[in-house]
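Expect chain and fold; thus:
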Amino acid sequence: MITEKSTIAVEMLLNEEKTERYLYKRIWSKAKAPKLACVMTIHPGSSDPNSMDLTTMLIANAINEMGYDGFLGVNLTSKLQQKRKISASDFSEENDSAILEAFNEENVEKIIVAVGSSIKTNKEVNAQLKSIIAQLSEERQKMVEVLVGLDGPVHPLTPIARGVGGWKLAKLKM
């Protein structure tokens, strides 16, 4: 019989009131330069570093299966528990800065956009995503991929994203 141990480090960047989360960082490697992916979803689910919503759990599992040492989680909007259609007023400079900083972090080897069909169905989401991607270097833009299903972009909660064989990724076309 053997015992396996793992230490997971979790960091969050929040506003003072803990009503907005700008970054979720989860690393399970002790490497000095861990191999990371950065995953963008729609909105954050929690401000508690010891609690994972289903989306965060599915992301952690998928990123681990891809062989990464951890991930940075960012969101198009930083407002916690927002469950309505996103509009232009939901975006902020603070959140945009946090997204760009995460996308440009040295150890990030892949950027995954996992916002679902919002890319195609919500003009504000599409415009915001285009604006953020345009601010990346050409090299970083080549690292951006989108989580896809049979009919285009999907969110990690979509059953097709959780299918056998792991996440399917494609180059982001905007």
Q: What stands out?
A: The two ends are 52 Å apart (CA to CA). Residues 54-65 form the longest helix (12 residues). Residues 136 and 143 are 10 Å apart (CA to CA). Helices lie at 54-65, 93-103, 118-121, 123-134, 138-141.
